[in-house]
């Protein structure tokens, strides 16, 4: 129990320490925000903590009158009507502290980033579904017809050594720049190989004794497939899925760099960067990263549920 | 007189192709095994005893010669599911519980659900693993895993049980206990057992007949009837006749290996 707690807390502590270090270094060396924005500036695009009320003290008199996408803002004295309205409409939480009130509000870029993330996530998941289906289907076919394995595998390996991102402009051309299917196609091609090769390895690398056992029971090919090869392949299919999960978000976002609808995450990042709004580009990158981690965790959970017998989960 | 269960006539098995790569694994094997016999195959490594077992079980085709099992071809016998097999490694399927592993042949042979459950229950009782029915193989010790493998091999009541060094990887204590258990099972089920082993003591203790083989080419050099009284138990091991038979098998092995040593010296 304490060991599993440590597994959660240790990385979290390191993360917090790194973020604090990042913030201090950027402030101390006065690094320009287009080189590296402060973590607080990045976070401010997603959420803000605003302290209002009280009277402006001497050193606060020159304080800013607007929210300006910063993570932590103190606005003493009277508020402008725009700020007042924003605090109302974007409010998540409000509580008083020592005569002032603290508002936790939605960051101004949270809504567009989440919408873009959802759009891109759908592309990634669609591509993952198609790539997984195709990879598993080809792996099953090459297991069933051994001759096709020798004939097809060189092509699969050659296709895998091609830089698949280079296909992005062509896919955009084939399916249309605004059509999510063009990005799904890129993701499909990208994850096909890791899924196929991992599944194939699991289907083929069956213990020879296990096979002899099946033959001694006079089991047919399809019984051997369903009762031996497929269960044997599930752990390696999941290894393939974990690789594919990371590739899927990368494929979808990079595909969007070559053009896509305004609502896509890749397009959002390129546009914000082009407009020198690096903090919000970084915020989008962080959300993309969180989505990637979530996909990985979901696959891990599915693996745990599907393979309770697997050595990885032995206690 | 009933027909023999296994009849091998002039069975040869040559592995590899081309004069240099060829290995004669079996040469002129003639063997008859009667119903309810417990026959051990013993010999030095590479003498082809596992190959012989696989020829009987139709997992390997002989290069020449005839194999008749229960009055039919080995292939037909395999398709009729006449064989139960136990290997040195338990070869349980990791993703199946103990009960599900025992059920595997019953599933393939389309036994009814109630019959499957009944037999699984009975088999687990036979090998004394009822409490472990819901466990996965990795949660069991090596000896327990091997007992599951035996239960699986017996669950569909095959007429012939083929065992390839089933206790070879186990410690001496476990091996002796499983020897007794196996004899018990053999008495209760009345199957014919062909048992490959490295151990002279094990062969003599278990068998009604010990077949001694020599290596390269693999041939039968001695066929020793083990006339120890049945049922055998731990006292059998201290029987004078037990030691005599052990010596007889050991001498037969020495002669069959001696030939090889001489040929190695001359080479």
Automatic annotation (TrEMBL), chain A:
Protein name, UniProt field: ABC transporter permease
Q: Which family would the database say this protein is a member of? A: Belongs to the binding-protein-dependent transport system permease family.
PANTHER family reported for this sequence: ABC TRANSPORTER PERMEASE PROTEIN HI_0355-RELATED, ALKANE SULFONATE ABC TRANSPORTER-RELATED, MEMBRANE SUBUNIT
Q: Which UniProt keywords apply?
A: Cell membrane, Membrane, Transmembrane, Transmembrane helix, Transport
Q: What is the lineage of its organism?
A: Bacteria, Bacillati, Chloroflexota, Caldilineae, Caldilineales
Q: Where in the cell is it found?
A: Cell membrane
Give yes or no: UniProt keyword Membrane: yes
Q: Which organism is it from?
A: Caldilineaceae bacterium SB0664_bin_27
The record's annotation in PROSITE patterns points to:
ABC_TM1
TrEMBL record, chain B:
Q: Which UniProt keywords apply?
A: ATP-binding, Nucleotide-binding, Transport
Give the matching SUPFAM superfamilies. P-loop containing nucleoside triphosphate hydrolases
Q: Which residues form a coiled coil?
A: none
Lineage, top-rank taxon, reads Bacteria
Checking InterPro entries in the record gives: AAA+_ATPase (IPR003593), ABC_transporter-like_ATP-bd (IPR003439), ABC_transporter-like_CS (IPR017871), ABC_transporter_ATP-bind (IPR050166), P-loop_NTPase (IPR027417)
Q: Which SMART domains match?
A: AAA
* GO terms, molecular function: ATP binding; ATP hydrolysis activity
Outline the extent of the ABC transporter domain. Answer: 6-240
Name the UniProt record assigns to this protein: ABC transporter ATP-binding protein
